[in-house]
Amino acid sequence: MYSILSRRVLMGASLAVCLGTSALSQAWAQTINLSYNGAPDPDKNAVHVFADNLKKLVEEKTQGDLEIKLYPNSMLGEEQERMEQVISSPSLNIASFAGMAPIVPEIYVSATPFLFEDFATARSFFDEGQYWQQVQDDFRERSQGSEILSVVEEGGFLAFTNNKRPIHGPDDFDGLRFRAMDPSQVALYEAFGASGTPIPWTEVYMALKTGVADGQMNPPMYVILGSLSEVQKYLTLANIQYSDQFLIANGQLLESLSDENRQALLDAVEQANQMARVENENKVDERIAYLQEQGMEVIRPSAEDMEAFRAKGQPAYLKWLEEEQGMDHELIKTAFKDAGQPLE
Prior knowledge:
alpha/beta; 4-stranded mixed sheet; D-Maltodextrin-Binding Protein, domain 2; 344 residues; 13 helices; 5-stranded mixed sheet
């Protein structure tokens, strides 16, 4: 009897120790908030695909020491509010140009229209280019040590949509009103003879539906994500700009992590980004076909039309960069060199 009772006591004690250890481990797990735009829908939101993969990889690589809590749909605020949060608190944020530009307006150089020929050129530009290294350094210095950890693709190259008429070339913009994400897009629209008004992403659908704006530009993925095919008839595949956002990490957060967990986070970021790139590129044609099925008329500009877009849009944009934004010409030259387009 004594032997059986002793064994039961020992077994119970061992179980309590195991449960206590497990609870202690869970209690010590560090939760990191990750905020971003768009719905938590992998079929419609490439940024969510990246975020979800990052969450899984970080938790796997740190064996649960770090947990990522996702906040999609701008739940923690619009762009500038979320940027203020990530700079001041231990968190992560995926920011668009609207969130980044107030800190590093130099980022507008990477949005020069028709700068990249294809995905490979754009990816090399950000992965290896001198211009982008300078932007990362400037951001770190101006944001209390926060870091740009990754450039996140959000669905291919930007396309124009509108509800008034087919747009084949720049002359077709005359008199139209467009939603702009930021001042750089306003400058591009004005170069084509249209007007641009900054409108937050969360208000775009209603602005298009009510006629506040006739059109907008985004990759096909965002047209699907925002159900914009319901309020837009024409889709012009002009491959205007490489569509990207930026993963930001709070500086104190990175410093607080152990060397092992910090490296695990960085490895997870790189792996999640590569996975998102593959999935994104594979779905470009599928997304365009889907929008066509929803009733949108797809316009594919000719080579001559594309050259007209470039000839009108790029010089006007560069003028805006230098005269309105005070951008250093040498930095612009570096960016064009990194993109394989030498500029005098």
